[in-house]
Write a structure and sequence with these properties.
The complex is a heterodimer of chains A (223) and B (216).
Chain A lengths: L1 H19 L5 E6 L3 E8 L4 E12 L4 E2 L8 E6 L5 E7 L2 E7 L4 E9 L11 E10 L6 H8 L3 H69 L4
Antiparallel strand pairs in A: 1-9, 2-8, 3-4, 3-7, 3-9, 5-6, 5-8
Chain B lengths: L1 H19 L4 E9 L4 E8 L4 E10 L5 E6 L5 E8 L1 E7 L4 E8 L8 E9 L17 H69 L1 H8 L1
The chains are: A alpha+beta (223), B alpha+beta (216).
Chain lengths: 223, 216
């Protein structure tokens, strides 16, 4: 009974800590109305988890405020066919997840909902961002706890996930190489076709010019 | 009962690892850098951490970008102009915010897509090991070396994919250029040849009266 309650508490603390643990991520600055996009070229059936935290610049204190009410970010994710697969607004701290169904370049775009902040238009936002792809999205601590794995089993599980990712990437590479080959063959065909057509056009025009001028001069009684 | 207490112990260990591993991070991003633009990224690093910055230009122009890495005091640790791909490892000598910037300010109309990979510190341990003092068993060290090898395989795959993306975007560019050029040149040929004939006819139409006068 006590053990079960303790486990529950620990799970909860672990989960909460997981959400807060990326405090020291990479950050960059964008304008309030600016849209920033990142490209992720991934094979299909790959999961991506993005964590972000955004801070608004306080001109009076000349520093970035830790949290602002009402400040949020729109996250928009487009798949390689330009179809939107995720479009949601999150608060000043958020986490978005999606899984790719087509291989290729996915675009993750962020912009703030700054219409409310038009008073501070021209303000800067500090965005902390962390994007994890594929094998890095696995939370091994959770997996170990859920499946009750020993250390060795967990290590082997990690190796299995990594090899899985390598395999997916190889498949994607085969698909890309096929596309590349198709493009090259199409260029080859086009160049061949065009050179034949150009030669025909040149010869035809030559004939037409000579014939036309000959009949013109004959009409003018100069030949 | 035994399973429960063991699980609790595991959870406590995992929690400790989570609290400790806040300073370990790998950031890998691909972004578009418009012409005449500069994009900077910042990271808070603890002294003594070994960090690696790797970048590669994926598409755009001559595939080159300026890169600059500064420590919290503004001292430039790494500065290269018009580099296509590079990897730089350093150990943080100070606590604070390190800044690295990519600049496309030398280019007037090509925007570049830049990929970078910034690794801070070593990977966190997978599973907190109670008896970390004792050496790893043979199986465990085999697993560790396979893991390291696979990490470098994945790294090479990423760089290969970026190079392939470069080649592919060039090939697709070439394909569209050939299409436009062939149609354009066919049109130019037709226009030039017809106007040649028309011009020639106009010469003779104007001078018809003058030639007959000269002849007689």
């Amino acid at each position: 009974m006590v053990a079960a309650r303790m486990q529950l508490t620990l799970y909860t603390v672990l989960l909460l800590n997981f959400f807060n643990s990326f405090v020291s991520a990479l950050y960059f600055h964008i304008g309030e109305t600016e849209k920033k996009c990142f490209i992720e070229e991934i094979p299909d059936e790959t999961m991506i988890i993005g964590n972000y935290r955004v801070q608004l610049y306080d001109k009076m204190k000349e520093e970035y405020m830790p949290a602002t009410q009402g400040l949020g970010m729109f996250v928009e994710v487009k798949d390689p066919d330009e179809k939107v697969i995720l479009s949601r607004q999150y608060g000043s701290e958020g986490r978005f997840t999606f899984t790719s169904h087509t291989p290729g370049e996915h675009q993750i775009c962020l912009h703030s909902n700054s219409s409310k902040f038009s008073l501070f238009a021209g303000g800067m936002l500090r965005v902390h961002l962390d994007i994890q792809v594929g094998e890095h999205t696995n939370n091994y601590a959770e997996i170990a706890a859920k499946d009750k794995l020993t250390e060795l089993q967990l290590r082997v599980r990690q190796l299995v996930e990594q090899v899985d990712q390598v395999q997916k990437e190889q498949n994607y590479q085969r698909y890309r190489e096929e596309r590349f080959r198709q493009t090259s063959e199409s260029t080859n065909q086009r160049v061949l076709w065009w050179s034949i057509v150009q030669t025909l056009i040149l010869v035809a025009i030559g004939f037409w010019q000579m014939r036309h001028l000959k009949s013109f001069f004959e009409a003018k009684k100069l030949v | 009962m035994m399973g429960d207490s063991r699980r609790i112990r595991v959870l406590v260990q995992v929690l400790c690892v989570h609290l400790l591993c806040g300073w370990v991070l790998t950031s890998e991003l691909t972004f578009e850098l418009p012409d005449n633009a500069k994009q900077c990224f910042y990271e808070d690093i603890v002294v003594g951490t070994k960090c690696t910055l790797e970048f590669q230009v994926v598409t755009g122009g001559h595939y080159d970008v300026d890169c600059r890495l500064e420590d919290p005091d503004g001292t430039v640790l790494y500065k290269e102009m018009k580099k296509q791909y590079d990897s730089f490892t350093f150990t943080a000598a100070k606590n604070g915010t390190f800044k690295f910037c990519f600049s496309n300010e030398f280019s007037t109309f090509t925007h570049k897509t830049v990929y970078f990979d910034f690794q801070v510190g070593d990977d966190p341990p997978l599973f907190p090991n109670e008896n970390r003092v004792t050496a790893l068993t043979q199986m465990e060290s085999a697993c560790v070396s396979i893991h390291e090898a696979l990490k470098s395989v994945i790294d090479y795959q990423t760089h290969f994919r970026l190079r392939e993306a470069q080649g592919r975007s060039r090939a697709e560019d070439l394909n569209t250029r050939v299409a436009f050029w062939s149609i354009g040149e066919a049109i130019i040929l037709l226009v030039v040849s017809i106007s040649q004939v028309v011009l020639l006819r106009s010469f003779f139409s104007d001078r018809k009266t003058t030639t007959t006068r000269v002849g007689s």
